[in-house]
Amino acid sequence: MIEARNLHKRFGKKVVAVEDVSFVAEDGIITGLLGPNGAGKTTTMRMLYTLVRPDRGTALVDGVDVVQRPEDARRGLGVLPDARGLYPRLTAREHARYYGELHGLSGAVLDKRVDELLDLLDMREIADRRTEGFSQGERVKVAMARALVHGPRNVLLDEPTNGLDVMSTRAVRNLLRRLKDEGRCVVFSSHVMQEVAALCDRIVVVAHGRVVADGTPDALRERTGKDSLEEAFVATIGTDQGLMQ
Ligand SMILES: Nc1ncnc2c1ncn2[C@@H]1O[C@H](COP(=O)(O)OP(=O)(O)OP(=O)(O)O)[C@@H](O)[C@H]1O
C-alpha cells in the first residue's frame, strides 16, 4: 500500500510543483494519477520513490516512511521512472539480471524470474541485444522488466505506455492487470484519460499540484453528472488542455 499525505514540493521560489497531494493506493487495485501536463504527477511519483525529498508531508510504502527509511521503502517498490535511463552496453536480459542481483536474487531463481518477464513482455527477440539503439517501446519494456524483477509488492509507473504501439500497450496493460490480480499495489500516472479509464479501479485527478478529485470511474461520472468519463474529467479540471493525446 502506498500513502501520500499532504505532500508539497517547490522548485526555487517560483515553481510550486506539488501543493498538498494526499491519496491512498490500496493493494490489489490499480490507481491512476491523471492530470494535464505540468500537473505535478512526476514530482509526486519522484517523492514516493525517494528521488525527490518533499518540502512537507509524508509518503509511506507499506507503512515505511520514505524519507526516514528510504532503503527499506525502496525494497518494497518497483519503479518505472519517467527517464528510462538504460545502460547502452548491456543487453535487455543483462539489465533485468543486474537489477535482480542488486535486490539479492541469484542463480536459478533469478534465471527463472528473468525468463518469465521476458516472455510476459514479449521480449524474446530483443533479449540478448545491447540496448543501444533500442526503440522507445523496446526501452520501456527493458525498464519494465528491470522494475519488476524482484517481485515488488508495490509498483509505481510514470506514463508506462508513452510511445508504445498497440501491441506493446496491450502487453503492458495485461501485465498491470496481472500485478493487480496478484494483490500488488499498482500506481501509474498518465495524461491520457482513455488509458486511465481502460485500466484503473480508482482515479486520483491532479491539477496545478493538487488533488481535485479522487474515486472510482463511476463515482467521478456521478459526481460531475456526466455520462462519459472524458466529459467528467474535463468538468473536474475545468479544461481539456494537456489532457488529450
Ligand atoms: N527539477 C525541476 N526544476 C524546476 N521545475 C520543475 C522541476 N521538476 C518539475 N518542475 C515543474 O513542476 C511542475 C510539475 O511538473 P511535473 O513533471 O511533476 O508534472 P507532470 O504532471 O508529470 O507533467 P507531464 O504530464 O507533462 O509529465 C511543472 O511546472 C514543471 O516545470
- What's the oligomerization state? single chain
Strand order of the main beta sheet, please?
6-7-8-3-9-10
Which shape, going by the Cα principal axes? globular
User: What is the succession of H and E elements?
Assistant: EEEHEEHEHHHEHEHEEHH
CATH homologous superfamily assignment of the largest domain: P-loop containing nucleotide triphosphate hydrolases
What is the fold-level CATH name, i.e. the topology of the largest domain?
Rossmann fold
Mean pLDDT score, rounded?
A: 90
How many strands, which pairing sense, and closed or not: the largest β-sheet?
A: 6 strands, mixed
Continuous helix count:
9
- Ligand inventory: adenosine-5'-triphosphate
Q: Return Rg in Å.
A: 18 Å
The CATH architecture term of the largest domain is 3-Layer(aba) Sandwich
Question: Approximately how much helix is present in the residues?
Answer: 25-40%
Strand portion: 15-25%
Alpha-beta content class? alpha/beta
In terms of per-residue confidence, which ranges show pLDDT below 50 for 5 or more consecutive residues? none
**What is the number of strand segments?**
10
In CATH, what is the class of the largest domain?
Alpha Beta
Q: Please report the distance between the alpha carbons of the first and last residues.
A: 30 Å
Write the layout of secondary structure elements.
Blueprint: E1 2-11, E2 15-25, E3 30-34, H1 41-48, E4 56-61, E5 64-65, H2 70-75, E6 77-80, H3 92-102, H4 107-120, H5 136-148, E7 154-158, H6 166-181, E8 185-190, H7 193-199, E9 202-207, E10 210-215, H8 217-224, H9 229-237
Parallel strand pairs: 3-8, 3-9, 6-7, 7-8
Antiparallel strand pairs: 1-2, 1-4, 4-5, 9-10
The chain binds adenosine-5'-triphosphate.
